[in-house]
Design goal:
globular; mainly beta; 4 helices; single chain; 12 strands; 12-stranded antiparallel sheet
Length: 231
């Protein structure tokens, strides 16, 4: 599912601007970053459904989505489906509406009218939100391949107690989640302080003019999700 669906659509989450409190003192007493991310990767690889938000802050070359939010699900083999709302540039025009992704097919619905299926030629250039939960391409893979991870502090994100871990990710690792990235990036994860250290938020600092970031959040992990093609 190499669709970049919806670069246009969304992928990994409108997290950003989340009110939080932090404590950056006592760094030596914080858990090891590598260990936290290892646990988080194993936990994420088992996630089969969740709610996500995606927020792009600034201009990321090759990524036409501004923000997206919705539900994700995946089958045991890694294939996935998604539905939600998105704001993006589609065929040179601003599109704000709903989307559904099932079995490599994408439908969109604007403020008026019914759902319309996008041609395969367009889908190939869109962002793929279903990649977020794909163990081989998504968040779990990124967590497993972060270099030089360092726990920087503890924060509350939307009422969840987390550890903030910063590191680096190579272009090949991050590209399935952030199309258009052509170099290594700095990445920050906020992982739950509970057992399993489930990831709550991730922020990718894209090395481009204006220092844009792509923020993704996961919540309602394990929620009942049934995503089917629109009628």
């Amino acid at each position: 599912m190499t669709r970049r669906i919806l670069s246009a659509l969304l992928a990994l989450a409108v997290a950003a601007t989340t009110a939080c409190t932090s404590d950056d003192s006592g760094g030596d007493s914080l858990p090891d970053g590598a260990g936290l991310l290892k646990d988080a990767a194993a936990t994420t690889a088992e996630i089969t459904s969740a709610h996500f938000t995606l927020a792009v802050n600034g201009d990321v070359p090759g990524l036409d989505v501004d923000k997206a939010e919705g539900d994700l699900t995946r089958e045991g083999g890694g294939s996935g489906a998604a539905r939600g709302t998105v704001s993006m540039t589609l065929l040179g025009q601003l599109f704000e509406g709903e989307f559904v992704l099932v079995d490599d097919k994408v439908w969109i619905k604007g403020p008026t009218g019914d759902y319309q299926e996008l041609p395969a030629s367009i889908i190939a250039n869109l962002y793929d939100p279903a990649a977020i939960l794909d163990p081989e391409r998504g968040v779990a893979n990124v967590l497993s391949n972060v270099r030089e991870p360092r726990t920087e502090g503890a924060e509350d994100i939307d009422g969840v107690s987390t550890y903030r871990v910063k590191g680096k990710a190579t272009r090949d690792v991050i590209a399935p989640l952030v199309p258009g990235v052509d170099s290594d990036v700095d990445i920050t994860f906020w992982v739950s302080q509970d057992d399993g250290h489930q990831p709550v938020k991730a922020s990718v600092a894209v090395p481009a003019e204006g220092s844009p970031t792509v923020d993704v959040t996961l919540s309602e992990v394990g929620k009942q999700v049934d995503i089917t093609p629109p009628q």
